[in-house]
Amino acid sequence: MRRARLFRSAPDLAALHADDGVFAGGGTGGDDGVGRAALEAFAAGLAGGSVHRLSLDHVIDVDGDEAVCRSSIVVLAGTAVVGAGRVTDHLRRIGGAWRIARRTSTPDPA
């Protein structure tokens, strides 16, 4: 995941998800992004350059071929914090690799 974000590759970001992966609310409270094509389109629209999304404080619970990862997120534009919140990823092991089955991002209140 780190490499995909560093190089801003929309296909690489989408490939982190299961074929039927969901980004609930599209990260903005809008419509869900469902499937790799929709997730790739979403990733292609992310601001590049000096915008960085930092994921931290991960807690991961694994149960066989499924897992849930809860984390905090901080969004920086240059050196300014422009957003923060929580992310819950439901993961599925597919062909020996972990993929995001469903991501829910909940912004902290302003």
Notes on the structure:
The protein is of the alpha+beta class. The longest helix is centred in the middle third of the chain and has 9 residues, at 36-44. The chain has helices at residues 2-7, 10-14, 36-44; strands spanning 17-24, 33-34, 51-63, 66-77, 80-94, 97-107. The chain has one domain (2-107): Nuclear Transport Factor 2, Chain: A, CATH 3.10.450.50. The protein is globular, with a radius of gyration of 14 Å. It has a six-stranded mixed beta sheet, covered by helices on one side. It contains three helices and six strands; from the N terminus they run H-H-E-E-H-E-E-E-E. Helix content is 18%, strand content 55%. Mean pLDDT is 84; it is low at 1-7.
What are its keywords?
110 residues; alpha+beta; 3 helices; 18% helix; disordered N terminus
Fold topology:
Blueprint: H1 2-7, H2 10-14, E1 17-24, E2 33-34, H3 36-44, E3 51-63, E4 66-77, E5 80-94, E6 97-107
Parallel strand pairs: 1-6
Antiparallel strand pairs: 1-2, 3-4, 4-5, 5-6
The total beta strand count reads: 6
Strand composition percent: over 45%
What Rg do the Cα atoms give?
14 Å
Number of helices: 3
List SSEs in N-to-C order. Answer: HHEEHEEEE
Largest sheet: 6 strands, mixed
Distance between the termini: 28 Å
The CATH topology is: Nuclear Transport Factor 2, Chain: A
- Indicate the percent of residues in helices: 10-25%
Q: Helices and strands: which structural class? A: alpha+beta
The CATH level-2 architecture is identified as Roll
Tell me which oligomeric state these chains represent: single chain
Question: How many structural domains?
Answer: 1
Please state the overall shape, judged from the principal axes of the Cα atoms. Answer: globular
Strand order of the largest sheet: 2-1-6-5-4-3
What's the CATH first level?
Alpha Beta
